[in-house]
Amino acid sequence: MPFERHDGAPLDAVRLAQRPADGYRFDLVEGFAYVDPVTGARYPVPGAGEASAVVATDLASVPSALWGFIASYGRQSAPALLHDHRSLVADELARTDRRAALVQRREDDRVFRTALREQRVPLLRAWLMWGWVSADRERTFNGALGGVFVVQAVLGALAVIAALVFVWWQPAWLLLLLAPAVGALWWGRLAPLQLVLAYGSGLLGPLVGLQLVALLPFRAIEALVELVTGGDPGGVVRPTAVPPAGGGLGDPARGRD
């Protein structure tokens, strides 16, 4: 098992403290480590009382509206905490060497994807999560080129959505599905990431739209009830499905997703 406690024993629980008690962010109470099966490198993830401890994390950083597709916690909890810490390390490195930080984050994001699969996160879900954090990496560390990369991925996803919608009226629209693949070629080693972002987000986009169609009226009704009863209408958008304070989330067999 690649995730282990600092003493080398298999990780049997991810211990978190919910702060504040009614909030949606967590501090890692007890650190752990990850051993990458690809390179053999060992990555410590510090907890409370250790230097650079992981604090105020929202775990997988998935908007609550999308939890029906990818939850913010579950089998992905330990990989998400690992990635949080490695992101902090990259941010610190970027203060002196932005290019080195970009190189490190690319490897760290690959480790994140590997860890997701080790935790038995389904293949498509793992690659989508890797794609989204990698897009944020390029945007953050790769300057103007990173911005171009993200914009192209968005346009590619829109092309996929357009092809899937308009094909009902004209089958020739299917040809538009080739556009993201052709556009990805000039990115070289980043081409697989471009493909994952364009096709993955494009295919998921309509499903997200359907979920929002069902979710938004419910949120509106919640807000109206809060308003009428003197409550806080803005509070209806806060996550409620959070893990218990200090609870263990380390057993992938008992994960919620």
Percent range for β-strand residues: 5-15%
What's the helix count?
6
Provide the spatial order of strands within the biggest beta sheet.
1-4-5
Give the biggest beta sheet.
Answer: 3 strands, antiparallel
Global Rg: 20 Å
Structural class: mainly alpha
**Portion of residues within helices:** 40-55%
One letter per element, helices H and strands E, the order comes to EEEEEHHHHHH
Beginning-to-end CA distance, first to last residue: 20 Å
Could you list the spans in which at least 5 consecutive residues all have pLDDT below 50? 240-257
Short note summarizing the structure:
49% of the residues lie in helices and 6% in strands. It contains six helices and five strands; from the N terminus they run E-E-E-E-E-H-H-H-H-H-H. The strands form two sheets. Strands 1-4-5 form a three-stranded antiparallel beta sheet, with helices on one face. Strands 2-3 form a two-stranded antiparallel ribbon.
Characterization of this structure:
This protein is mostly helical and 257 residues long. It is 49% helix and 6% strand. The protein contains 6 helices and 5 strands. It has helices at 77-94, 98-118, 123-141, 143-166, 178-184, 191-228, and strands spanning 3-4, 16-18, 26-28, 32-35, 42-45. The strands form 2 sheets. A 3-stranded antiparallel β-sheet has the order 1-4-5, covered by helices on one side. Helix 1 runs antiparallel to helix 2 (98-118) and helix 3 (123-141) packs across helix 6. The relative contact order is 0.14. The model is unreliable at 240-257 (pLDDT under 50).
